[in-house]
Specification:
By secondary structure, the protein is mainly alpha-helical. The protein has a single domain, classed as Na+/H+ antiporter like fold (Up-down Bundle), CATH 1.20.1530. Helices cover 71% and strands 1% of the residues. It contains 19 helices and 2 strands. Strands 1-2 form a two-stranded antiparallel ribbon. α17 packs antiparallel against α18. The chain is globular.
Length: 426
């Protein structure tokens, strides 16, 4: 007969999945669909943190919960990598038919040519420069190694959660528009750069770097990427797996875990391996059916548990017992928005009521702040205090909630969408 010692690892899984299911029911019953699901899950995690953490420690299940956390973050980063769309970097004419009735094609806002690649790169560079300035202003809150701390915060402030932003653009009918493609490109590039630079930083500060292992890992990444893209492995598996259930799914899961393991082994962060796995799988052109099946597993099982665990790591009562924490959350919140000021470059082509919500949307970031607090927090490099780490997550969560509310209220992009419909109707 199995004892509780044999099946004890089921306990946190049952609790976390049960709470995640209850969260979905609450969102549906109270019609909270304007809120991002992951935000509600983190909030629920905050509410149960005192009881959950005490229970997990008493039952000696801390290792299992930590394992779920790592697995959930890896799976989330996989889909962040999968969302990277290189085709977004191309040029557009705002009025390809040359039939503008406003200026008779004398180069008004609706007729100007947009060099997407140049615009995206320019905005990204200026965003990084603004992020450096804002990060330096937060250096007094760092406990040690402030240079590394400034670099980490720069990567945080310059990042965008593409896995959150791109679906919003799609749901709001902006994915096929020019502004939607520009915002998608910026989100994809900023997240990819943050993960890449974060990995380089972790390798650089490794006390005993294994350079041969780093080079070997990079070589393996490049070989797998080249093979999957050139051979279009996804299409091949589509033909091969006609009578074999879930073979492609198993291969993708193995690929994710392999690259996560190699990335962590070589001294970089494991999230980089998961991110690269997502890029490779996208280039392999697996069928939508296979990707949909994996997304159901990841978004239905792993990421909800991960977000709830993130919430349980924040002791909000202790955090807000000090007035300084509230001020710190607000400072970080406005810091995230200020770093997106370079988005005003888009005023050359779009009106203010289109650019302002774009700034809020590009400031939305969750995964990179979680990774940064994991690396630079008290359990990592010790650069940030627990208070500062929690404030980083809460501030980024607040931006995501406000950004989601703005777009779900159909304001102020509504006017822009109506204009696009009128142009297409003409």
């Amino acid at each position: 007969m199995l004892s509780l010692q044999d099946t004890g690892f089921f306990i946190p899984i049952i609790i976390l999945l049960g709470i995640a299911s209850l969260t979905s029911i609450l969102i549906s019953v109270f019609k909270l669909r304007f809120l991002p699901v992951f935000a509600v899950e983190i909030i629920i995690g905050i509410l149960i943190s005192a009881w959950f953490n005490k229970f997990i420690v008493e039952q000696n299940l801390v290792g299992i919960v930590d394992g779920i956390y790592v697995l959930g973050l890896s799976m989330l980063m996989f889909f962040s990598g999968y969302e990277v769309e290189f085709d977004a970097f191309r040029d557009f004419e705002l009025n390809e038919q040359n039939d503008c009735k406003t200026c008779k094609h004398r180069r008004c806002r609706r007729c100007k040519h947009i060099n997407t690649f140049k615009t995206v790169i320019k905005i990204t560079i200026y965003t990084y420069l603004a992020s450096i300035v804002v990060s330096v202003l937060f250096s007094p809150f760092m406990e040690e190694n402030k240079v590394i701390g400034v670099i980490l915060l720069t990567l945080l402030f310059a990042s965008t959660f593409a896995g959150f932003v791109v679906p919003i653009l799609f749901n709001e009918g902006l994915h096929g528009t020019i502004i939607g493609n520009i915002l998608s490109a910026i989100a994809n590039l900023s997240e990819a750069l943050s993960i890449l630079f974060l990995t380089i930083l972790m390798i650089a500060i490794d006390i005993d770097p294994k350079y041969w292992l780093i080079l070997l890992t990079i070589g393996i990444f490049l070989i797998i990427f080249r093979f999957f893209k050139k051979m279009k492995v996804g299409k091949y598996f589509g033909k091969l797996t006609g009578g074999i259930d879930h073979l492609a799914t198993r291969v993708i899961i193995v690929l994710i875990l392999l690259l996560v393991f190699l990335s962590d082994l070589s001294g970089g962060e494991y999230i980089f391996g998961a991110f690269i796995a997502g890029i490779i799988v996208r280039q392999a052109l697996f069928s939508e059916k296979i990707i949909h099946g994996i997304s159901q597993i990841i978004y239905g099982v792993f990421t909800p548990m991960f977000y709830i665990i993130v919430g349980t790591k924040i002791n909000v009562i202790e955090l807000f017992s000090e007035l300084s924490s509230i001020y710190l959350v607000l400072m970080i919140f406005f810091g995230l928005l200020i770093c997106e000021v370079p988005m005003f470059i888009l005023l050359k082509w779009y009106k203010l009521n289109t650019v302002l919500p774009s700034i809020v949307l590009m400031a939305c970031t969750v995964v990179v702040p979680i990774a940064i607090t994991h690396i630079g927090g008290p359990h990592g490099l010790g650069i940030f205090s627990e208070q500062f780490s929690n404030c980083l997550i809460l501030a980024s969560l607040l931006v995501c909630i406000i950004g989601s509310v703005i777009f779900n209220l159909n304001f102020p992009f509504g006017n822009y969408r109506n204009q696009e419909k009128e142009v297409s109707a003409e």
